[in-house]
Every structure is written in structure tokens, then in C-alpha cells.
Amino acid sequence: MIPQLVTVRYRRSDGHRRRLFVPVLPVALVLSPLLPLAVLGAVVACFVNGMPPLGALRGAGRLLWALPGTRFEIEDGPMAFLVSIR
Predict the structure, then answer these.
(1) What is the pLDDT of residue 76?
(2) Residues 64, 69, 71, CA angle at the centre, nearest 5°?
(3) What is the 3-state secondary structure (H, E, C) of 7-58?
(4) In the chain, at which end, N or C, are there fewer CB atoms within 10 A of the end residue's CB?
């Protein structure tokens, strides 16, 4: 299952908390013209590192499949980020 919504919560240095909801499908549609360039870069990177491109594609697919339900938090001094993927 592909993630549908990414929620980003962050605390600014002044203590205010913010929450951003990022829908995955509209963002993917807006960025889709860049997809051929990203695929070409990934294939070149695979050949440079001696990795089979299909193996990298399989790994990316497994990562995408595991994303829903993932949460991670980054805290650095007064700033903090919490990202949850649904």
C-alpha cells in the first residue's frame, strides 16, 4: 500500500508548534515531470556503483511498501520534527 498522507509536526525555536499535512498523490503529480530525470540519475548511480538497477528498484519498492504507519522524530536543540506517514 502506498502512503496517502504525510504529517509533519515541528516546534520552532520560539516554542510554537506547527503541523503540516502533505498529501502524497498531488505532490507526486506536481513533481512527475522530474521523474524521468530522477530515473536517469538513479540508473547512472547504479552503474557507477556496480549495482543492478532492477535490484535497486526492488529495494525502493519494498521501502515504499513498509512506509505506512512509520513515525520518526528529529530533535536538535530548540527545534524538533515529528514525521508520521499514513
Answers:
(1) 75
(2) 100
(3) EEEEECCCCCEEEEEEEHHHHHHHHHHHHHHHHHHHHHHHHHHCCCHHHHHH
(4) N
| Grid coordinates of 76 | 536538535
Q: Which of 13, 2, 5, 23 is nearest to 77 (CA)?
A: 13
Q: Is beta strand 71-76 parallel, antiparallel or unpaired with respect to 17-23?
A: unpaired
Q: What is the DSSP letter of 74?
A: E
Edge-to-edge strands, sheet with 5-11: 17-23, 5-11, 79-85, 71-76
Distance CA 34, CA 45 (A): 17
**Which residues, in sequence order, are CB contacts of 77 under 8 Å at separation 6+?**
13
- The number of residues making up the chain comes to 86
User: What is the number of other CB atoms lying within 10 angstroms of the CB of residue 2?
Assistant: 10
- CA atoms of 67 and 73, how far apart (whole Å): 15
